[in-house]
Amino acid sequence: MAKEIVTLTGDGKVGTEMIGFKGKSCLKAAADIAAELERLGVITEVADLRMKDTTEVTEQAQQTALKVERG
Amino acid sequence: MSHIKKETVRGFDTVHPVVLAEGIKVAAQLLSLQGVPVTNFIYDWNGNKVTEFSGMKIICGLDAQAKASTSSKFAGMGLAVDKNGKLAIVGDFYSSQQKQRAKELQKQLKAVLGGACYFAARAMIAHAKGQKTEVKINNETRQLQLVVQM
């Protein structure tokens, strides 16, 4: 199942990791979340964006991981 | 009570008041992991526990130790959302030691509140969508983690 893990560190930095998405659907999910956050007045700046496509063309579930760190 | 003052803090002007209130709770939890005592009140000059000020509910108090008239002790820094939806700092910071402690705490709070509001807002979005969430507290790394099943 797709999930997002948001980590808040002691110095107030936020890191998000999105895993279990198929193909590039995680990018759409990330964009939707960013839009909803903005509607709530939470404006963020992406400090580091790493995308690792772990899609496997096997019977195993396709997965895409997206890791974002926000400043 | 008469000594208690309110100060509105800028920097979170865009954040929705409900998110700000939840963000304050998250920030307090994070500061608590860093060793800052967190209560739901602050002390006034005479040692009364104050949970409300000028119609504002104090969401949490940071480092409330003793009555403000004990100049060597800290009476607590209250965090609230004012009627305009802005972050309000409430407390009786009388002696130079108390003022210094208030300054330190405000600095610590400002460092984490933005991230805390993000964290709170993300959880609120998940709840609104009926998604399952789990909050994990890591005492060792002093981090909070939110897992959203999407």
Please summarize what this structure is.
Chain A is of the alpha+beta class and 71 residues long. Chain A is 21% helix and 41% strand.
Describe this structure in words.
- Helices cover 21% and strands 41% of the residues of chain A.
- By secondary structure, chain A is α+β, with helices and mostly antiparallel strands.
- Chain A has a four-stranded antiparallel beta sheet with strand order 1-2-4-3, with helices on one face.
- The longest helix of chain A is centred in the middle third of the chain and has 15 residues, at 25-39.
- Chain A is globular.
- The model of chain A is unreliable at 57-62 (pLDDT under 50).
- With 150 residues, chain B is of the alpha+beta class.
- Chain B contains two helices and eleven strands.
- A five-stranded antiparallel beta sheet of chain B has the order 1-9-8-7-2, covered by helices on one side. In chain B, strands 3-4 form a two-stranded antiparallel sheet.
- The radius of gyration of chain B is 16 Å and the shape is globular.
- The model of chain B has no long low-confidence stretch (mean pLDDT 93).
- Chains A and B meet through strand 1 and helix 1 of A and helix 1, helix 2 and strand 11 of B.
- Strand 1 (3-8) of chain A pairs antiparallel with strand 11 of chain B, so a sheet runs across the interface.
